[in-house]
Amino acid sequence: MKSETVGSATLETWSVEEVEQAFAANEIVLIDVRTPQEYIFEHIEGALLMPMAFFKAEKLPGQTEKRIVLHCGSGIRSEKMARLAIDAGVTKIAHMDGGFGAWKTAKKPYIGTDMASGAPKRVG
């Protein structure tokens, strides 16, 4: 994990493996900031959706029990939303390096769409 001090806050960048392990251990809340359409088509099972267009940092849950890790498609939008959260007063936030694209490249499981039926299906 890489970390950067932004004022009095800490912005962390987690690897896919770190996110997978912490998510499996129920240590984090994983929040997808992609569009609803992207999420419906494919997403990490159990990840919550707070699209960038409607992102309200002040509505994020507290982090007393679980850390928050944001992710998007490539890591660009999630980093932008993490910085927005810091601007809103969140003192520690993380995002996943490489986003969902890196998750898929690492062959991690996710919910995709069966192109023949349009139904959701587990991949990986």
UniProtKB/TrEMBL annotation:
Signal peptide: none
Pfam families named among the record's database cross-references: Rhodanese
Coiled-coil stretches: none
UniProt domain Rhodanese: residue ranges: 24-112
InterPro entries linked to this entry: Rhodanese-like_dom (IPR001763), Rhodanese-like_dom_sf (IPR036873)
PANTHER family: THIOSULFATE SULFURTRANSFERASE RDL2, MITOCHONDRIAL-RELATED, THIOSULFATE SULFURTRANSFERASE_RHODANESE-LIKE DOMAIN-CONTAINING PROTEIN 3
Name listed for the protein in its UniProt record: Rhodanese-like domain-containing protein
